[in-house]
Amino acid sequence: MTYCVGMKLNRGLVFMADTRTNAGVDNFSTTKKLFTWNVPGERAITLMTAGNLATTQAVISLLDERSKAPSDRSPTILQLPTMFGVAQLVGATLKEVIAESAPSGQNASSFRASIIVGGQIDGGEPRLFLIYPEGNFIEVTDDAPFFQIGETKYGKPIIVRAYEPDMTFEDAVRLLMVSFDSTIKANLSVGLPIDLQLYETDSFTCVEEPRITAETPNYQAITQAWSEALRAALDGLPPYVRDGR
Amino acid sequence: MTYCVGMKLNRGLVFMADTRTNAGVDNFSTTKKLFTWNVPGERAITLMTAGNLATTQAVISLLDERSKAPSDRSPTILQLPTMFGVAQLVGATLKEVIAESAPSGQNASSFRASIIVGGQIDGGEPRLFLIYPEGNFIEVTDDAPFFQIGETKYGKPIIVRAYEPDMTFEDAVRLLMVSFDSTIKANLSVGLPIDLQLYETDSFTCVEEPRITAETPNYQAITQAWSEALRAALDGLPPYVRDGR
Q1: Where in chain B are the domains?
Q2: Contact B199, B12 (CB under 8 A)
């Protein structure tokens, strides 16, 4: 599996993705799942993938190749005027790859993938979309301000409780580190290192933070402190009072 | 879905089960998923179910009816000399019900269910088993001292971090309340009220604690304090230090 989170804040967007891929437990490796297309000052687009690796790599390659040879099929991801158009293009490309992978009549479910894509294009606001294998998509709202793909369940409760739209980037990254740590500790199919990008509204520049590994002191400090803080938080709760007999 | 946890402590066993059942979001109700067979002083057996409701109800009814009319097929759950035998009986009954529900050639996956069964029979130790739809089963070990069935992912990280074999019953219940609260807040298919049983080694008596509802002051106090403690724990972590740019 995979674990990726895209989050919309008042000040911009946060993207975090693990890097573990596996086909069975005896065949796993590290693969980047976070990709960017950036025209400084004009557009910054970040995309994260979960699902069948052949499918997601083909989608990225197609988006990339077509942006370099725009005569093939235009406008490309580097030319589209809006983020809505980018979401449509990514959705159409994903649907096309899945359809091509599945021989006619065969169930396409093995080839499925999901994508989070977000960013900003000059003239519009920062937007964040979740793209389904069918090619359609939804956008974040104030009520549902983040998207998760892959192994989403372990790390959801803490985000649900602690997300605030006016968080700083630093607080959002710390929250996501905790969410990722909970997932990594509970599920072998999600693993370090973690890729991280921050997008500040109207900057039109993707800022890629250093990859987070098990040796990153900041990550070690935060996850270690979180383990201790959780234990302390539990110990500090009111006691359960037995009523039975 | 469902969320049930069975946990083995040095001092005994803890069983906690939610009560929501649903077939689609427009058809849900409250159903007990925790059942006991108790011969005071001789045996105390607790069973929790997840999966197809028709399957699990049939399993419970069969175990129950056969214990009342032991001539039908003996020994029954009230006569078997060991918990291992009880696990075998429950597994065989589950497998039998699933096989009967699925017309020949039809995929039985819609009729599947999982069961946690534990307890103690005079002459043996307290034991706890997880029974698969295929009828086979595994037992808790020191390394894997608890079983979850149903929507297991949301509530797993906190148990993984905080379980200790020498916990008191009160601390274990508090930990499980937190695990259930995280699940309930993140997934509509798991809901209050919660059933709870505590089994103290060599007591041969199931102690059923009062059902936990949204109005239970102790549950309100613990989950409310947990929300606040989590926020405080996050705020108290070392900051994330941006390195980008």
Answers
A1: 3-233
A2: yes
Contact: A238, B232; criterion CB under 8 Å = no
A237, A241, A243, A245: best mutation site toward chain B, by most B Cβ within 10 Å?
A: A237
The fold of A3-235 is Glutamine Phosphoribosylpyrophosphate, subunit 1, domain 1 (3.60.20)
Q: Does A178 touch chain B (CB under 8 A)?
A: yes
The answer to whether the beta carbons of residues A36 and A208 sit under 8 Å apart is yes
CATH code for the part of the protein at B3-233: 3.60.20.10
From first to last of its 245 residues, chain B has per-residue pLDDT tens of 899 999 999 999 999 999 999 888 888 899 999 999 999 999 999 999 999 999 999 999 999 999 888 665 678 999 999 999 999 999 999 999 999 988 776 677 889 999 999 999 999 999 999 999 999 999 999 988 999 999 999 999 999 999 999 999 999 999 999 999 999 999 999 999 999 999 999 999 999 999 999 999 999 999 999 999 999 999 999 999 997 54
* Residues 134-153 of chain B whose Cβ lies under 8 A from any Cβ of chain A: 151, 153
As a whole number of angstroms, the distance between CA A150 and CA A88 comes to 21
Q: Nearest CB to A177: which of B162, B236, B240? A: B240
The ipTM value here is 0.88
Q: Are A46 and A166 in contact (CB under 8 A)?
A: no
Q: List B147's β-bridge partners, or say none.
A: B6
